[in-house]
Request: fold
Amino acid sequence: MLKKEFILKKIGQGLLHLLFWCAVLLFYTYFFGVGSNNFNDTLVFSLFLMPITIATTYVSIYKLIPDYLVTKRYFLFVLYSIYTLIISAYLVMVSIFFSLIYISNFEYNDMNPLTRNILFVKTGIYLVTFIVSAFKLMKLNIKASQKTKTLETKILETQLKLKEQELKYLKMQIHPHFLFNTLNTMYGFALKKADETPKMILKLSNLLDYLLYQADKPFVNLKDEINHIEDYISLEQMRFSDTLNVQFSKNISLDNIEMAPMLLIPFVENSFKHGKIRNGSLDISIYIKANAENITFKIKNSSVKDLSIKEGIGLENIKKRLDFLYPNQHQLEINNSTNDFEVLLSLNLKSKLTDA
Reply:
């Protein structure tokens, strides 16, 4: 099947070439026949020029341009072009000589006035060669441009897929980290056979529902993300009991504000994991303000100066996810003072990524 298509394609190209050279022959007959009433002699003279024109043109478009000009081997291109010019000029002279014998029987004055002008004859031949060569060069440039564009598109698609895979990998890291902390808390309650254990299991069920069905979406409603945080805080309050003091304030102006999922919870996790109990209490304050254009998230916990923000998987991953999901659309400030550890995150919602 492919061989048949290839043969048909070659036949089609051959017919196009044949039609083109027939058109050139007619052009020569008209071009060199100006001022002459003998059409047959002009046609025969044009036939003498056709092999030279065809050979010169094909050497240009199939050898000189693709092998030397396009590949930027300019010295060889100029050198071989000069060779081609010299040889073709010689063959034109031979053609004119034979046409003089065949058509005019060595009677120079009987020749068509225009065919006696060697410069005029060469101009006609090289004009055809130049036009065809220019068309070939334009065609090669268009083909190279399309190939470059296709290659760039493939590179961009590959880079996008790599980023998507890395983003999925980061999410996969967050989920086990989150579950590990939560299950540790539940394990402690189970050992004590605490009455709060069933309630904790229900909260964990809500969290797992969010992880399984919401976290893989590109965007979720901000209220769902807040509910997720509140469930997590409830679990931690059961674990810390009276040693935990959490203040959670919200200022949400709209109901349909959306954001990428699982962006805020790692900061909350980090506060519980690395927070420092002072005066018998771990103090954590959380503030969220949101409108149609921005989301501002602020969290502060009691801490010590020497704690590094690189502790824990969550914070490192969240910074990478922010770079992926909100490039040049977020501000993240982390301040570690003597007594407090504070995170301030601002998200610009004016333009959103279509895929997380």
